[in-house]
Amino acid sequence: EGGPQYRRRSVNRRPTGYRAFARRFAAALSCLTIAAGSVQAAECIRGINLAGAEFGSLGQEYGKGYLYPSEKTIAYFGDKGFTGVRLPFLWERLQPKLYDKFDTAELRRLRSTVKAIRSAGMQVILDPHNYARYQDQLIGSDGVPQSAFADFWRRLAAVFANQDGITFGLMNEPYGISAEDWLSAANGAISAIRQSGAGNLILVPGTSWSGAHSWSGGDYGTPNATVMTGVTDPANNYAYEFHQYLDVDFSGKNEECSRAADAVKAVSDIGDWLAGQGKRGFLGEFAVSTMPICQQALKDMVAAVESRPGVWLGWSYWAAGDWWKPSEPLNIQPTKSGDRPQMQTLQAHFAGRKTCGG
Fold first, then answer.
1. What is the DSSP string of 294-319?
2. Are strands 45-50 and 84-89 parallel, antiparallel or unpaired?
3. 286 with 337: CB under 8 angstroms?
4. Separate counts of helices (H) and strands (E) for the chain
5. CA–CA separation, 322 vs 267, rounded Å?
6. Band of pLDDT at residue 123, cut at 50, 70 and 90
7. Residue 356 has pLDDT above 60, yes or no
8. Beta strands in 10-151 (DSSP E)
9. Any idea what DSSP says for residue 66?
10. Which of 1, 43, 54, 285 is catalytic?
11. Which residue among the candidates 92, 173, 241, 306 is catalytic per the annotation?
């Protein structure tokens, strides 16, 4: 959980090497799972958020204010053994005017990046990184009716309908909206996706920044745990998305990981909730800094997900991308000196676990 602040983020080639390919292929086969109640298979995801396309201010030129991940970055994470990429981008850049067609250049960039990620052997989670807003106006407001959100997803779903390895993440971290209103907007978007003919897996967040620790709490109104059971999907092919940071206020804005035990418990509790509902979940964001004490916490978070393959589809670490400053403590974009400590921790975990939950 966090907020809209810039707190964690402010020509394609295939990865080389037979061993890297074989490792990813074997992992994909061994991690194939069926989402509870789903009509489609879903690969177990070990993912990375490749940030950059949601950066900058509207109106800034491509390459100056924002950037999609490069072929070098995509290849790096594919070679490391990641099986998925959560790809943030801005709704307003893709659809500059509500109810209107997509911007041709921006759609080309998005499709090209998706193609590159898929060519690298990884799944893609499309992530409109807007916090349930369009130009700072909340979905459901007079300026951004829920029907506009449904229209956006109808158009986007039509572009990527039924393409292998592409998941639709409805929205990044809704906040400032009641769970009831968010559920209505989400169900409208899901209906539009299915009406487009797309059967892709959909990830559905809750309000209050999708926090796992606050899923059953009531400080933001009726809890997500109560309201979000009302998700309606004609294809019954969806999972819930959660985010969980480990610092003092669970925001991901701080370098320390003083609430690590609470964060791991929150993920464990969500696993129990999912099991009780007969549903699946995905941990879309979590991260730790380079502090040595936080590396064990990182292992514990991953283990909390991978030890329960019956309810979790996988996870996606926040974050990496070509424009991260080396001083940003949570990102795992490699530096000139090599891999960051968090990557080394994850690599050791990859080596020790051949399959999710294995």
1. HHHHHHHHHHHHHT-TTTEEEEEEEE
2. parallel
3. no
4. 10, 12
5. 29
6. very high
7. no
8. 32-34, 41-43, 45-50, 84-89, 123-128, 133-134, 137-138
9. B
10. 285
11. 173
Residue count of the chain: 358
Q: How many CB atoms lie within 10 A of CB 202?
A: 24
Is residue 73 predicted with pLDDT exceeding 90?
A: yes
Is 285 part of the annotated catalytic residue set?
Answer: yes
Run of H or E residues at 106: helix 104-119
> How confident is the model at residue 193, as a pLDDT?
99
54 is catalytic: no
Mean of the pLDDT values across residues 93-119? 98
Phi, psi of 316 (to 5 degrees): -145, 115
The token pair at 197 is: 């003919």
Distance CA 175, CA 216 (A): 15
pLDDT digits (tens, 9 = 90+) for 233-258: 999 999 999 999 999 999 999 999 99
* Residue carrying the six token digits 């390895």: 165
Given pLDDT bands bounded at 50, 70 and 90, which one contains residue 35?
very low
Q: What is the per-residue DSSP string for 155-213?
A: HHHHHHTT-TTEEEE--S---SS-HHHHHHHHHHHHHHHHHTT----EEEE-SGGGBST
Query: Does the pLDDT at position 175 exceed 50?
Result: yes
